[in-house]
Amino acid sequence: MNIIRSIYNKEIKYYFYSLTNYVFVIIFAALSIYLYFQNFFIQGQADVAPWSQNLPFLLIFFIPALSMGTISEEKRLGTWEILLTLPTQEIQVVLAKFLAGFTFVLFLLFSTIGIPVTLAFLGKPDWGVVASSYLGGVALAGAYLSTGIFVSSLVRQQTISFVITFLFLLVNDIFSQDFFLLRAPVFLKGIFQFLSLRSHYENFAQGQINLDSVVFLFSWIIFFILLTIISLRSRDF
Amino acid sequence: MLLVENLYKKFGSREILHGISFSVKDNHIVGLLGPNAAGKTTTMRIITGFLSPSKGRVTVNGIDTQSSSRKAKSLLGYLPENNPLYDLFTPIEYVSYIASMKSQKDRHSIDQIVNLCGLTNVAQDKIDTLSRGYKQRVGIAAALVGSPSVLILDEPTTGLDPNQREEIKKLIKRLKITTLFSSHILSEVKDICQEVIIINQGVIVADGRLSDLMRKGGSALRASLKITKNQKSAISMIRKELLKLKVKLPRAYARVIFSARFVGSGISPKRKNLRIHTRSYDRGFLRRRTKAPLFSTSGSIVKIKFSGVKDSGAIKDALWKLCQKNNLPLEELKETGDSLEDVFHKLTK
To answer: Do A84 and B50 touch (CB under 8 A)?
Structure first.
Protein backbone atom coordinates (compact mmCIF):
# COMPACT_ATOMS: atom_id res chain seq x y z
CA MET A 1 0.00 0.00 0.00
CA ASN A 2 2.92 2.31 0.81
CA ILE A 3 4.35 1.83 -2.65
CA ILE A 4 1.00 2.58 -4.32
CA ARG A 5 0.69 5.70 -2.17
CA SER A 6 4.23 6.86 -3.02
CA ILE A 7 3.74 6.43 -6.76
CA TYR A 8 0.26 7.96 -6.54
CA ASN A 9 1.65 11.04 -4.74
CA LYS A 10 4.39 11.41 -7.31
CA GLU A 11 1.91 11.14 -10.18
CA ILE A 12 -0.45 13.65 -8.56
CA LYS A 13 2.43 16.05 -8.13
CA TYR A 14 3.19 15.75 -11.84
CA TYR A 15 -0.47 16.18 -12.84
CA PHE A 16 -1.03 19.24 -10.70
CA TYR A 17 2.39 20.81 -11.22
CA SER A 18 1.98 21.04 -14.98
CA LEU A 19 0.60 24.32 -16.28
CA THR A 20 -0.46 22.54 -19.45
CA ASN A 21 -2.83 20.38 -17.43
CA TYR A 22 -4.55 23.46 -16.00
CA VAL A 23 -4.94 24.91 -19.49
CA PHE A 24 -6.32 21.53 -20.48
CA VAL A 25 -8.93 21.66 -17.67
CA ILE A 26 -9.92 25.23 -18.57
CA ILE A 27 -10.42 24.30 -22.24
CA PHE A 28 -12.45 21.25 -21.23
CA ALA A 29 -14.65 23.29 -18.90
CA ALA A 30 -15.07 26.09 -21.45
CA LEU A 31 -16.02 23.66 -24.23
CA SER A 32 -18.44 21.78 -21.96
CA ILE A 33 -20.15 24.99 -20.89
CA TYR A 34 -20.25 26.38 -24.43
CA LEU A 35 -21.73 23.19 -25.90
CA TYR A 36 -24.24 23.04 -23.09
CA PHE A 37 -25.49 26.61 -23.20
CA GLN A 38 -25.49 26.78 -27.02
CA ASN A 39 -29.09 25.52 -27.17
CA PHE A 40 -30.00 25.86 -23.53
CA PHE A 41 -32.40 28.78 -23.82
CA ILE A 42 -33.99 27.47 -27.05
CA GLN A 43 -34.68 24.15 -25.35
CA GLY A 44 -35.91 25.80 -22.17
CA GLN A 45 -35.40 22.69 -20.03
CA ALA A 46 -33.47 22.54 -16.79
CA ASP A 47 -31.63 19.26 -17.36
CA VAL A 48 -28.07 18.18 -18.10
CA ALA A 49 -28.96 16.17 -21.21
CA PRO A 50 -27.17 18.47 -23.70
CA TRP A 51 -24.01 18.20 -21.59
CA SER A 52 -24.20 14.44 -21.11
CA GLN A 53 -24.77 13.92 -24.84
CA ASN A 54 -21.58 15.79 -25.67
CA LEU A 55 -19.49 14.41 -22.82
CA PRO A 56 -18.33 11.16 -24.56
CA PHE A 57 -17.05 13.19 -27.55
CA LEU A 58 -15.17 15.57 -25.30
CA LEU A 59 -13.68 12.74 -23.29
CA ILE A 60 -12.57 10.94 -26.46
CA PHE A 61 -10.33 13.96 -27.13
CA PHE A 62 -9.29 14.81 -23.61
CA ILE A 63 -8.67 11.44 -21.93
CA PRO A 64 -6.15 10.17 -24.53
CA ALA A 65 -4.30 13.47 -24.13
CA LEU A 66 -4.24 12.92 -20.39
CA SER A 67 -3.20 9.29 -20.48
CA MET A 68 -0.78 9.38 -23.41
CA GLY A 69 2.34 9.95 -21.29
CA THR A 70 1.40 7.83 -18.29
CA ILE A 71 3.79 5.03 -19.13
CA SER A 72 5.23 5.92 -22.53
CA GLU A 73 6.89 9.05 -21.16
CA GLU A 74 8.51 7.08 -18.35
CA LYS A 75 9.72 4.59 -20.93
CA ARG A 76 11.12 7.37 -23.08
CA LEU A 77 12.88 9.07 -20.18
CA GLY A 78 14.15 5.79 -18.74
CA THR A 79 12.61 6.38 -15.30
CA TRP A 80 10.60 3.25 -15.99
CA GLU A 81 13.76 1.22 -15.46
CA ILE A 82 14.24 2.75 -12.04
CA LEU A 83 10.63 2.13 -11.07
CA LEU A 84 10.69 -1.53 -12.05
CA THR A 85 14.07 -2.27 -10.49
CA LEU A 86 12.82 -1.11 -7.11
CA PRO A 87 11.01 -3.68 -4.95
CA THR A 88 7.72 -2.90 -6.70
CA GLN A 89 5.25 -5.03 -8.62
CA GLU A 90 3.71 -4.08 -11.94
CA ILE A 91 0.21 -4.18 -10.42
CA GLN A 92 1.20 -1.56 -7.82
CA VAL A 93 2.63 0.72 -10.48
CA VAL A 94 -0.39 0.40 -12.77
CA LEU A 95 -2.93 0.85 -9.98
CA ALA A 96 -1.14 3.92 -8.64
CA LYS A 97 -0.98 5.44 -12.10
CA PHE A 98 -4.62 4.67 -12.79
CA LEU A 99 -5.76 6.10 -9.46
CA ALA A 100 -3.74 9.28 -9.96
CA GLY A 101 -5.11 9.70 -13.48
CA PHE A 102 -8.59 9.01 -12.18
CA THR A 103 -8.18 11.69 -9.51
CA PHE A 104 -7.29 14.16 -12.21
CA VAL A 105 -10.30 13.01 -14.25
CA LEU A 106 -12.52 13.77 -11.25
CA PHE A 107 -10.95 17.22 -11.12
CA LEU A 108 -11.61 17.58 -14.86
CA LEU A 109 -15.29 16.66 -14.47
CA PHE A 110 -15.58 18.85 -11.39
CA SER A 111 -14.59 21.78 -13.57
CA THR A 112 -18.07 21.55 -15.19
CA ILE A 113 -19.80 22.02 -11.83
CA GLY A 114 -20.95 25.41 -13.11
CA ILE A 115 -23.55 23.64 -15.25
CA PRO A 116 -25.64 22.05 -12.44
CA VAL A 117 -25.11 25.11 -10.25
CA THR A 118 -26.57 27.34 -13.00
CA LEU A 119 -29.42 24.86 -13.44
CA ALA A 120 -30.20 25.12 -9.75
CA PHE A 121 -30.57 28.89 -10.11
CA LEU A 122 -32.59 28.83 -13.31
CA GLY A 123 -35.00 25.98 -12.64
CA LYS A 124 -35.68 22.77 -10.81
CA PRO A 125 -33.50 20.07 -12.31
CA ASP A 126 -33.97 16.39 -11.56
CA TRP A 127 -31.01 15.91 -9.23
CA GLY A 128 -31.19 12.15 -9.62
CA VAL A 129 -30.52 12.45 -13.36
CA VAL A 130 -27.79 15.02 -12.75
CA ALA A 131 -26.09 12.73 -10.23
CA SER A 132 -26.36 9.63 -12.42
CA SER A 133 -25.08 11.60 -15.45
CA TYR A 134 -22.02 12.60 -13.46
CA LEU A 135 -21.60 9.07 -12.13
CA GLY A 136 -21.81 7.73 -15.67
CA GLY A 137 -19.32 10.38 -16.79
CA VAL A 138 -16.90 9.30 -14.09
CA ALA A 139 -17.27 5.61 -15.05
CA LEU A 140 -16.92 6.37 -18.76
CA ALA A 141 -13.83 8.51 -18.15
CA GLY A 142 -12.38 5.70 -16.02
CA ALA A 143 -12.93 3.22 -18.85
CA TYR A 144 -11.35 5.60 -21.38
CA LEU A 145 -8.44 6.21 -19.00
CA SER A 146 -7.70 2.51 -18.48
CA THR A 147 -7.69 2.09 -22.27
CA GLY A 148 -5.32 5.04 -22.65
CA ILE A 149 -2.95 3.71 -19.99
CA PHE A 150 -2.86 0.32 -21.71
CA VAL A 151 -2.00 1.90 -25.06
CA SER A 152 0.61 4.05 -23.33
CA SER A 153 2.25 0.87 -22.02
CA LEU A 154 2.65 -0.44 -25.56
CA VAL A 155 4.49 2.49 -27.12
CA ARG A 156 7.28 4.94 -26.35
CA GLN A 157 5.91 8.04 -28.11
CA GLN A 158 3.16 10.05 -26.46
CA THR A 159 1.76 11.17 -29.80
CA ILE A 160 1.39 7.63 -31.05
CA SER A 161 -0.26 6.68 -27.78
CA PHE A 162 -2.71 9.58 -28.20
CA VAL A 163 -3.59 8.72 -31.80
CA ILE A 164 -4.12 5.01 -31.14
CA THR A 165 -6.27 5.62 -28.04
CA PHE A 166 -8.27 8.34 -29.79
CA LEU A 167 -8.98 6.16 -32.84
CA PHE A 168 -9.83 3.15 -30.70
CA LEU A 169 -12.29 5.12 -28.57
CA LEU A 170 -13.74 6.83 -31.61
CA VAL A 171 -14.42 3.51 -33.33
CA ASN A 172 -15.94 2.20 -30.09
CA ASP A 173 -18.16 5.28 -29.94
CA ILE A 174 -19.27 4.82 -33.55
CA PHE A 175 -20.56 1.35 -32.59
CA SER A 176 -23.50 3.02 -30.87
CA GLN A 177 -24.18 5.68 -33.49
CA ASP A 178 -27.38 5.36 -35.54
CA PHE A 179 -25.68 5.94 -38.90
CA PHE A 180 -23.44 2.95 -38.20
CA LEU A 181 -26.07 0.68 -36.70
CA LEU A 182 -28.42 1.28 -39.65
CA ARG A 183 -25.76 -0.08 -41.99
CA ALA A 184 -24.53 -2.89 -39.74
CA PRO A 185 -25.75 -6.50 -40.23
CA VAL A 186 -28.77 -7.13 -38.03
CA PHE A 187 -27.20 -10.02 -36.10
CA LEU A 188 -24.19 -7.85 -35.17
CA LYS A 189 -26.15 -4.78 -34.04
CA GLY A 190 -26.66 -6.12 -30.53
CA ILE A 191 -22.98 -7.02 -30.16
CA PHE A 192 -21.85 -3.60 -31.38
CA GLN A 193 -24.21 -1.85 -29.02
CA PHE A 194 -23.13 -4.03 -26.12
CA LEU A 195 -19.45 -3.33 -26.79
CA SER A 196 -19.95 0.41 -27.11
CA LEU A 197 -19.06 2.30 -23.97
CA ARG A 198 -21.36 5.15 -24.95
CA SER A 199 -24.46 2.96 -25.05
CA HIS A 200 -23.79 1.92 -21.44
CA TYR A 201 -23.11 5.51 -20.46
CA GLU A 202 -26.37 6.64 -22.04
CA ASN A 203 -28.29 4.61 -19.47
CA PHE A 204 -26.65 6.69 -16.76
CA ALA A 205 -27.35 9.90 -18.68
CA GLN A 206 -31.06 9.01 -18.75
CA GLY A 207 -31.04 8.54 -15.00
CA GLN A 208 -31.02 4.72 -15.10
CA ILE A 209 -28.28 2.93 -13.25
CA ASN A 210 -28.41 -0.54 -14.79
CA LEU A 211 -26.39 -3.29 -13.16
CA ASP A 212 -25.41 -4.46 -16.67
CA SER A 213 -23.87 -1.11 -17.51
CA VAL A 214 -22.17 -0.78 -14.12
CA VAL A 215 -20.66 -4.25 -14.46
CA PHE A 216 -19.66 -3.63 -18.08
CA LEU A 217 -17.87 -0.34 -17.39
CA PHE A 218 -16.22 -1.70 -14.25
CA SER A 219 -15.12 -4.87 -16.09
CA TRP A 220 -13.74 -2.75 -18.93
CA ILE A 221 -11.56 -0.86 -16.46
CA ILE A 222 -10.31 -4.06 -14.80
CA PHE A 223 -9.73 -5.75 -18.15
CA PHE A 224 -7.53 -2.93 -19.45
CA ILE A 225 -5.65 -2.64 -16.15
CA LEU A 226 -4.91 -6.37 -16.40
CA LEU A 227 -3.84 -5.97 -20.04
CA THR A 228 -1.49 -3.17 -18.97
CA ILE A 229 0.06 -5.39 -16.29
CA ILE A 230 0.51 -8.19 -18.84
CA SER A 231 2.03 -5.75 -21.31
CA LEU A 232 4.52 -4.57 -18.70
CA ARG A 233 5.44 -8.09 -17.63
CA SER A 234 6.22 -9.00 -21.21
CA ARG A 235 8.56 -6.03 -21.62
CA ASP A 236 11.58 -8.20 -22.42
CA PHE A 237 10.05 -10.33 -25.13
CA MET B 1 28.15 -11.36 -3.14
CA LEU B 2 26.77 -11.25 -6.64
CA LEU B 3 26.72 -14.48 -8.59
CA VAL B 4 25.79 -14.72 -12.26
CA GLU B 5 25.48 -18.26 -13.56
CA ASN B 6 25.22 -19.36 -17.17
CA LEU B 7 23.10 -16.39 -18.26
CA TYR B 8 21.42 -16.47 -21.66
CA LYS B 9 19.21 -13.77 -23.10
CA LYS B 10 17.26 -13.85 -26.32
CA PHE B 11 15.25 -10.99 -27.82
CA GLY B 12 13.08 -12.73 -30.38
CA SER B 13 15.44 -14.89 -32.39
CA ARG B 14 18.49 -12.77 -31.54
CA GLU B 15 20.62 -14.10 -28.73
CA ILE B 16 22.36 -11.28 -26.87
CA LEU B 17 24.01 -13.23 -24.06
CA HIS B 18 25.49 -16.67 -24.64
CA GLY B 19 25.84 -18.24 -21.21
CA ILE B 20 27.88 -15.76 -19.20
CA SER B 21 29.00 -16.53 -15.66
CA PHE B 22 30.93 -14.42 -13.19
CA SER B 23 30.91 -13.35 -9.57
CA VAL B 24 31.60 -10.17 -7.66
CA LYS B 25 33.05 -10.79 -4.21
CA ASP B 26 31.98 -8.79 -1.18
CA ASN B 27 33.33 -5.24 -1.07
CA HIS B 28 35.03 -5.61 -4.44
CA ILE B 29 34.57 -3.14 -7.27
CA VAL B 30 34.47 -4.98 -10.57
CA GLY B 31 34.54 -3.27 -13.93
CA LEU B 32 32.34 -4.59 -16.72
CA LEU B 33 33.94 -3.64 -20.00
CA GLY B 34 32.99 -4.23 -23.57
CA PRO B 35 32.37 -2.46 -26.85
CA ASN B 36 28.93 -1.11 -27.72
CA ALA B 37 26.25 -3.81 -28.04
CA ALA B 38 28.45 -6.32 -26.23
CA GLY B 39 25.68 -7.11 -23.75
CA LYS B 40 26.79 -5.03 -20.74
CA THR B 41 23.51 -3.18 -20.21
CA THR B 42 21.45 -6.34 -20.85
CA THR B 43 23.53 -8.15 -18.21
CA MET B 44 22.97 -5.32 -15.73
CA ARG B 45 19.24 -5.19 -16.50
CA ILE B 46 18.94 -8.91 -15.84
CA ILE B 47 20.86 -8.60 -12.57
CA THR B 48 18.55 -5.81 -11.41
CA GLY B 49 15.44 -7.74 -12.40
CA PHE B 50 14.33 -5.31 -15.09
CA LEU B 51 14.69 -8.09 -17.65
CA SER B 52 14.38 -11.79 -17.06
CA PRO B 53 16.99 -14.18 -18.42
CA SER B 54 16.10 -16.74 -21.08
CA LYS B 55 18.24 -19.20 -19.13
CA GLY B 56 20.56 -19.08 -16.14
CA ARG B 57 20.25 -17.35 -12.82
CA VAL B 58 21.49 -14.44 -10.76
CA THR B 59 21.77 -14.46 -6.98
CA VAL B 60 22.48 -11.60 -4.62
CA ASN B 61 23.76 -12.85 -1.25
CA GLY B 62 22.27 -16.21 -2.18
CA ILE B 63 18.82 -14.79 -3.04
CA ASP B 64 17.58 -15.59 -6.53
CA THR B 65 16.57 -12.44 -8.42
CA GLN B 66 13.84 -14.30 -10.31
CA SER B 67 12.14 -16.45 -7.68
CA SER B 68 12.54 -13.88 -4.86
CA SER B 69 12.60 -10.81 -7.01
CA ARG B 70 11.33 -8.26 -4.45
CA LYS B 71 13.71 -9.45 -1.77
CA ALA B 72 16.64 -9.45 -4.20
CA LYS B 73 15.70 -6.00 -5.54
CA SER B 74 15.78 -4.58 -2.03
CA LEU B 75 19.42 -5.72 -1.78
CA LEU B 76 20.40 -3.92 -4.98
CA GLY B 77 21.14 -0.31 -5.77
CA TYR B 78 20.99 0.57 -9.44
CA LEU B 79 22.07 3.53 -11.49
CA PRO B 80 20.86 2.95 -15.07
CA GLU B 81 22.63 4.22 -18.14
CA ASN B 82 21.93 7.95 -18.77
CA ASN B 83 20.76 8.34 -15.16
CA PRO B 84 17.04 8.98 -15.64
CA LEU B 85 15.54 11.16 -12.89
CA TYR B 86 12.24 12.84 -12.07
CA ASP B 87 13.14 16.44 -12.79
CA LEU B 88 10.36 18.03 -10.75
CA PHE B 89 11.71 16.60 -7.51
CA THR B 90 14.46 18.12 -5.40
CA PRO B 91 17.31 15.71 -4.55
CA ILE B 92 15.95 15.22 -1.03
CA GLU B 93 12.43 14.56 -2.37
CA TYR B 94 13.75 12.13 -4.94
CA VAL B 95 15.85 10.19 -2.45
CA SER B 96 12.87 10.15 -0.05
CA TYR B 97 10.64 8.88 -2.88
CA ILE B 98 13.03 6.01 -3.61
CA ALA B 99 13.31 5.38 0.16
CA SER B 100 9.53 5.12 0.48
CA MET B 101 9.51 2.57 -2.35
CA LYS B 102 12.10 0.56 -0.42
CA SER B 103 10.07 0.99 2.78
CA GLN B 104 12.84 3.06 4.36
CA LYS B 105 11.32 5.83 6.40
CA ASP B 106 14.37 6.77 8.46
CA ARG B 107 14.88 10.46 7.74
CA HIS B 108 18.32 10.37 9.34
CA SER B 109 19.63 7.77 6.86
CA ILE B 110 18.24 9.82 3.96
CA ASP B 111 20.11 12.87 5.22
CA GLN B 112 23.24 10.77 5.62
CA ILE B 113 23.08 9.60 2.00
CA VAL B 114 22.49 13.14 0.76
CA ASN B 115 25.46 14.28 2.81
CA LEU B 116 27.68 11.38 1.69
CA CYS B 117 27.00 12.18 -1.95
CA GLY B 118 27.79 15.85 -1.43
CA LEU B 119 24.26 17.01 -2.17
CA THR B 120 23.58 18.98 1.01
CA ASN B 121 24.03 22.35 -0.70
CA VAL B 122 21.60 21.55 -3.49
CA ALA B 123 19.22 19.32 -1.54
CA GLN B 124 16.32 21.77 -1.92
CA ASP B 125 16.94 22.72 -5.58
CA LYS B 126 14.87 21.21 -8.38
CA ILE B 127 16.75 18.40 -10.12
CA ASP B 128 16.25 19.97 -13.56
CA THR B 129 18.27 23.00 -12.41
CA LEU B 130 21.29 20.91 -11.34
CA SER B 131 24.48 20.32 -13.31
CA ARG B 132 25.16 16.91 -14.83
CA GLY B 133 27.65 16.10 -12.10
CA TYR B 134 25.10 16.80 -9.38
CA LYS B 135 22.44 14.86 -11.25
CA GLN B 136 24.80 11.91 -11.36
CA ARG B 137 25.28 12.22 -7.61
CA VAL B 138 21.50 12.24 -7.16
CA GLY B 139 21.33 9.01 -9.18
CA ILE B 140 24.04 7.42 -7.05
CA ALA B 141 22.35 8.68 -3.86
CA ALA B 142 19.11 7.01 -4.99
CA ALA B 143 21.02 3.80 -5.66
CA LEU B 144 22.40 3.92 -2.11
CA VAL B 145 19.00 4.08 -0.45
CA GLY B 146 18.23 1.09 1.74
CA SER B 147 21.90 0.18 2.33
CA PRO B 148 22.18 -2.10 -0.72
CA SER B 149 24.53 -5.08 -0.59
CA VAL B 150 25.40 -4.68 -4.25
CA LEU B 151 25.60 -1.57 -6.41
CA ILE B 152 25.08 -1.79 -10.16
CA LEU B 153 26.35 1.32 -11.94
CA ASP B 154 25.86 1.48 -15.69
CA GLU B 155 28.32 4.01 -17.09
CA PRO B 156 28.05 6.43 -14.18
CA THR B 157 30.51 8.92 -15.63
CA THR B 158 29.19 9.21 -19.19
CA GLY B 159 28.85 12.79 -20.31
CA LEU B 160 30.72 14.27 -17.35
CA ASP B 161 33.70 16.60 -17.61
CA PRO B 162 37.06 15.38 -16.21
CA ASN B 163 36.56 17.11 -12.85
CA GLN B 164 33.09 15.70 -12.40
CA ARG B 165 34.39 12.27 -13.42
CA GLU B 166 37.09 12.51 -10.81
CA GLU B 167 34.52 13.39 -8.15
CA ILE B 168 32.26 10.47 -9.05
CA LYS B 169 35.27 8.13 -9.05
CA LYS B 170 36.21 9.30 -5.57
CA LEU B 171 32.63 8.86 -4.40
CA ILE B 172 32.43 5.28 -5.71
CA LYS B 173 35.72 4.41 -4.05
CA ARG B 174 34.57 5.97 -0.79
CA LEU B 175 31.38 3.87 -0.66
CA LYS B 176 33.17 0.55 -0.15
CA ILE B 177 30.21 -1.49 -1.36
CA THR B 178 30.26 -4.53 -3.65
CA THR B 179 29.96 -2.83 -7.03
CA LEU B 180 29.61 -3.86 -10.63
CA PHE B 181 30.59 -0.87 -12.69
CA SER B 182 30.46 -0.52 -16.45
CA SER B 183 32.37 2.08 -18.37
CA HIS B 184 33.87 2.88 -21.73
CA ILE B 185 36.70 4.81 -20.13
CA LEU B 186 39.43 2.29 -19.50
CA SER B 187 41.61 4.53 -17.36
CA GLU B 188 38.66 4.99 -15.05
CA VAL B 189 38.17 1.25 -14.66
CA LYS B 190 41.89 0.96 -13.91
CA ASP B 191 41.57 3.62 -11.20
CA ILE B 192 38.49 2.24 -9.49
CA CYS B 193 38.28 -1.50 -10.00
CA GLN B 194 40.25 -4.36 -8.53
CA GLU B 195 38.91 -6.80 -11.09
CA VAL B 196 37.68 -6.57 -14.64
CA ILE B 197 35.26 -8.57 -16.75
CA ILE B 198 35.49 -8.02 -20.48
CA ILE B 199 32.43 -9.00 -22.47
CA ASN B 200 32.23 -9.16 -26.24
CA GLN B 201 29.26 -10.23 -28.36
CA GLY B 202 27.53 -11.74 -25.35
CA VAL B 203 30.49 -13.82 -24.23
CA ILE B 204 32.97 -13.16 -21.43
CA VAL B 205 36.39 -12.98 -23.03
CA ALA B 206 38.35 -12.10 -19.90
CA ASP B 207 37.67 -12.11 -16.20
CA GLY B 208 40.16 -11.53 -13.44
CA ARG B 209 42.44 -9.19 -11.59
CA LEU B 210 43.60 -6.22 -13.60
CA SER B 211 47.30 -7.03 -13.20
CA ASP B 212 46.76 -10.65 -14.33
CA LEU B 213 44.83 -9.54 -17.37
CA MET B 214 47.43 -7.06 -18.41
CA ARG B 215 50.13 -9.72 -18.09
CA LYS B 216 48.07 -12.17 -20.16
CA GLY B 217 47.56 -9.69 -22.95
CA GLY B 218 51.21 -9.88 -24.07
CA SER B 219 54.21 -7.80 -23.26
CA ALA B 220 55.16 -4.33 -24.25
CA LEU B 221 58.64 -3.09 -24.81
CA ARG B 222 59.53 0.46 -23.97
CA ALA B 223 62.82 2.00 -24.89
CA SER B 224 64.12 5.42 -23.94
CA LEU B 225 67.03 6.98 -25.74
CA LYS B 226 68.75 10.22 -24.90
CA ILE B 227 69.39 12.26 -28.01
CA THR B 228 70.57 15.78 -27.43
CA LYS B 229 71.58 16.80 -30.93
CA ASN B 230 69.79 16.47 -34.27
CA GLN B 231 66.91 14.68 -32.67
CA LYS B 232 64.69 14.73 -35.76
CA SER B 233 67.23 13.19 -38.09
CA ALA B 234 68.18 10.64 -35.44
CA ILE B 235 64.54 9.61 -35.06
CA SER B 236 64.19 9.33 -38.79
CA MET B 237 67.30 7.18 -38.96
CA ILE B 238 66.10 4.88 -36.14
CA ARG B 239 62.69 4.56 -37.79
CA LYS B 240 64.28 3.49 -41.04
CA GLU B 241 66.54 1.04 -39.25
CA LEU B 242 63.62 -0.43 -37.32
CA LEU B 243 61.72 -0.94 -40.53
CA LYS B 244 64.62 -2.91 -41.88
CA LEU B 245 64.47 -5.26 -38.89
CA LYS B 246 63.55 -8.79 -39.85
CA VAL B 247 61.70 -9.56 -36.66
CA LYS B 248 58.27 -11.07 -36.45
CA LEU B 249 56.07 -8.52 -34.77
CA PRO B 250 52.44 -9.54 -34.46
CA ARG B 251 50.62 -6.34 -35.30
CA ALA B 252 54.09 -4.87 -35.17
CA TYR B 253 53.63 -1.21 -34.63
CA ALA B 254 55.00 0.92 -31.93
CA ARG B 255 52.78 3.15 -29.91
CA VAL B 256 53.74 6.63 -29.08
CA ILE B 257 53.59 7.75 -25.53
CA PHE B 258 53.67 11.39 -26.21
CA SER B 259 54.61 13.71 -23.43
CA ALA B 260 54.86 17.07 -25.03
CA ARG B 261 57.03 19.66 -23.49
CA PHE B 262 55.78 23.12 -24.27
CA VAL B 263 59.14 24.87 -24.16
CA GLY B 264 58.73 28.61 -23.82
CA SER B 265 54.97 28.43 -24.25
CA GLY B 266 54.27 29.05 -20.60
CA ILE B 267 52.10 25.97 -20.41
CA SER B 268 53.15 23.59 -17.71
CA PRO B 269 53.49 19.98 -18.79
CA LYS B 270 52.06 19.07 -15.41
CA ARG B 271 48.62 20.16 -16.55
CA LYS B 272 47.31 16.67 -16.90
CA ASN B 273 44.22 17.32 -18.99
CA LEU B 274 46.15 19.30 -21.51
CA ARG B 275 48.72 16.55 -21.76
CA ILE B 276 46.11 13.88 -22.31
CA HIS B 277 44.50 15.96 -25.00
CA THR B 278 47.80 16.66 -26.73
CA ARG B 279 48.79 13.04 -26.48
CA SER B 280 45.69 11.68 -28.08
CA TYR B 281 45.83 14.31 -30.82
CA ASP B 282 49.38 13.53 -31.73
CA ARG B 283 48.92 9.80 -31.60
CA GLY B 284 46.08 10.05 -34.05
CA PHE B 285 48.04 12.45 -36.19
CA LEU B 286 51.06 10.21 -36.42
CA ARG B 287 49.07 7.01 -36.87
CA ARG B 288 47.29 8.47 -39.83
CA ARG B 289 50.58 9.23 -41.52
CA THR B 290 52.71 6.21 -40.92
CA LYS B 291 52.50 2.51 -40.45
CA ALA B 292 56.05 2.37 -39.19
CA PRO B 293 56.95 2.37 -35.51
CA LEU B 294 56.09 5.63 -33.86
CA PHE B 295 58.03 7.69 -31.41
CA SER B 296 57.41 10.11 -28.65
CA THR B 297 59.68 12.79 -27.38
CA SER B 298 60.02 14.48 -24.07
CA GLY B 299 62.78 17.04 -24.21
CA SER B 300 65.92 15.14 -25.11
CA ILE B 301 64.32 11.79 -24.33
CA VAL B 302 62.95 9.76 -27.23
CA LYS B 303 60.55 6.98 -26.25
CA ILE B 304 59.60 4.00 -28.36
CA LYS B 305 56.91 1.55 -27.40
CA PHE B 306 56.18 -1.81 -29.01
CA SER B 307 53.02 -3.53 -27.91
CA GLY B 308 51.85 -7.10 -28.35
CA VAL B 309 55.47 -8.18 -28.56
CA LYS B 310 56.05 -11.89 -28.58
CA ASP B 311 59.74 -11.97 -29.54
CA SER B 312 61.09 -9.25 -27.30
CA GLY B 313 64.63 -10.67 -27.30
CA ALA B 314 65.09 -10.03 -31.01
CA ILE B 315 63.85 -6.47 -30.74
CA LYS B 316 66.03 -5.81 -27.70
CA ASP B 317 69.11 -7.14 -29.54
CA ALA B 318 68.33 -5.08 -32.58
CA LEU B 319 67.86 -1.95 -30.53
CA TRP B 320 71.09 -2.52 -28.61
CA LYS B 321 73.02 -2.97 -31.82
CA LEU B 322 71.40 0.05 -33.37
CA CYS B 323 72.26 2.24 -30.42
CA GLN B 324 75.83 1.00 -30.21
CA LYS B 325 76.37 1.45 -33.93
CA ASN B 326 75.12 5.05 -33.88
CA ASN B 327 76.50 5.91 -30.48
CA LEU B 328 73.10 6.65 -28.97
CA PRO B 329 72.85 6.35 -25.19
CA LEU B 330 70.07 3.90 -24.38
CA GLU B 331 68.65 5.17 -21.11
CA GLU B 332 66.08 2.49 -20.48
CA LEU B 333 64.84 -0.70 -22.04
CA LYS B 334 61.90 -2.06 -20.13
CA GLU B 335 59.51 -4.92 -20.76
CA THR B 336 56.09 -4.58 -19.21
CA GLY B 337 52.58 -6.01 -19.55
CA ASP B 338 50.21 -4.49 -22.08
CA SER B 339 47.99 -1.66 -20.98
CA LEU B 340 44.31 -2.34 -20.27
CA GLU B 341 43.58 -0.56 -23.50
CA ASP B 342 45.77 -3.00 -25.43
CA VAL B 343 44.15 -5.98 -23.76
CA PHE B 344 40.69 -4.56 -24.45
CA HIS B 345 41.48 -4.00 -28.13
CA LYS B 346 42.90 -7.47 -28.54
CA LEU B 347 40.04 -9.26 -26.85
CA THR B 348 37.20 -7.35 -28.42
CA LYS B 349 38.51 -7.04 -31.95
So the answer is: yes
